[in-house]
Amino acid sequence: MATPISPLPDLSQYNYDIGDTVDVVTKQNAINAEIEALGQRINATVASINTEVQAVEDVAQTATDAATQAAESAQEASAIYPSVTQGLGATSADQFFKVPENGYLQLYRNSNGAAEPVFRLASEEALIKLNAQPDPLLTSLIF
């Protein structure tokens, strides 16, 4: 945190009195020294503020970079292609793509030109059909 500039110098002690002649130079030199010291404190405070601002800018840049990377990853992950071939053609190694297949949405990873299945998401219709099927284990226990 920046160091506040406090207190400001009290220059009233250097006021000229009537008849000051030699003391004028001494008092003016003292005023100049006080002003110089104040300037140094101001410079130190400004340098401290600049350091803090740079740190905040660095954090903001890091957050911006992370957000950009996350947005790019989300964009890549949201890509749905009509076929595995098109998904492979549109992605690079280690990128992901999705293909609708038989009521499911299959996520693939481009593994150096080969489609590697990662996981499969069922559509609502597929889940309804699956839930409508009787459970063989439960059926065998009841009947």
Descriptors:
single chain, 143 residues, alpha+beta, 2 domains, 4 helices, 3 strands
How would you summarize the topology of this molecule?
Layout: H1 22-77, H2 84-90, E1 96-101, E2 104-111, E3 114-122, H3 124-132, H4 136-142
Antiparallel strand pairs: 1-2, 2-3
How confident overall, as mean pLDDT? 85
The tally of structural domains comes to 2
Percent of residues in helices comes to 55-70%
Strand content: 15-25%
Provide the low-confidence segments as ranges.
none
Broad shape: rod-shaped
The description of the largest β-sheet is: 3 strands, antiparallel
How many helices? The count is 4
CA-CA gap between termini: 75 Å
> Helix/strand-derived class?
alpha+beta
Number of strands: 3
**SSE order in H/E notation?**
HHEEEHH
| Strand line-up across the major sheet | 1-2-3
Radius of gyration of CA atoms, rounded to a whole number = 37 Å
Polypeptide structure, described:
- There is one protein chain.
- The chain contains four helices and three strands, in the order H-H-E-E-E-H-H.
- It has helices at 22-77, 84-90, 124-132, 136-142, and strands spanning 96-101, 104-111, 114-122.
- The model has no long low-confidence stretch (mean pLDDT 85).
- With 143 residues, it is of the alpha+beta class.
- It has a three-stranded antiparallel β-sheet with strand order 1-2-3.
- The longest helix is centred in the middle third of the chain and has 56 residues, at 22-77.
- The protein has two domains: 19-78; 79-143, no CATH class.
